[in-house]
Amino acid sequence: MQRIFDMYKTPNHGIYSLSIKQSLVTNDYSESFNIGGVEALIADLLEVTKDLDAWVLLQRPESNVGVTQDALIPMMQGYLKLQQAGCKAVGIVENSLFVHSGTPHNPAELTMPINIHKDEHYLREWLEKILKKIKI
After folding, report:
1. Strands across the sheet with 114-117, in order?
2. DSSP label at 10?
3. How far apart are the first and last CA of the chain?
4. Which domains are assigned to the chain?
5. 38 near 78, Cβ under 8 Å?
6. pLDDT computed for residue 4 by the predictor
7. pLDDT at residue 103 is higher than 60
8. Which percentage of the chain shows pLDDT scores above 90?
9. Are 20 and 14 in contact (CB under 8 A)?
10. Which end of the chain has fewer beta carbons closer than 10 Å to its terminal beta carbon, N or C?
11. Which one, of 126, 42, 53, 50, lies nearest residue 90 by Cα?
12. Checking DSSP bridges between strand 15-21 and strand 24-30, what pairing results, if any?
């Protein structure tokens, strides 16, 4: 019996970079993210933080950032994976209206704070306070 698999993989969309300074992970990103792009970003975040017990994430989107409708739930599930991998908080600079698009899709298990604010300096201070509170 011959089995034929018709497989189609959507190319990853979305551009991003990651940097780490101590326990602060910074993620710059631009353009529109589909499921493949969201999954790639989450996988890379998990890879670069695998040796950290606890850390925080600062996300700095460009104004042209978007996310496809079908990627919203995987994006929010990705935040849950980050929480399970030691992420204690996420600060998102409000540069795009899409930064609020995942809010209605928060998984119940997602308990880490996610702060969306226009002022990056404010978010950095907030994340530093969280790191001090957990003594990192």
Report:
1. 15-21, 24-30, 55-61, 87-93, 114-117
2. P
3. 58
4. 15-133 (3.30.750.24)
5. yes
6. 46
7. yes
8. 77
9. no
10. N
11. 126
12. antiparallel
Give the pTM: 0.89
Residue with tokens 């019996």: 1
Q: Which of 83, 75, 82 is nearest to 106 (CA)?
A: 75
Torsions phi, psi for 101 (to 5 deg):
-65, -25
Q: Is the pLDDT confidence value at 121 over 70?
A: yes
Burial call 69-104: b when 16+ CB within 10 Å, e when fewer: eebbebbbbbbbebbebbbbbbbbbebbebbebbee
Question: Tokens 């529109």 appear where?
Answer: 32
CA nearest to 93, candidates 54, 68, 122: 122
pLDDT range class, residue 10, cuts 50, 70, 90: low
Q: Which tokens is 100 given?
A: 């609020």
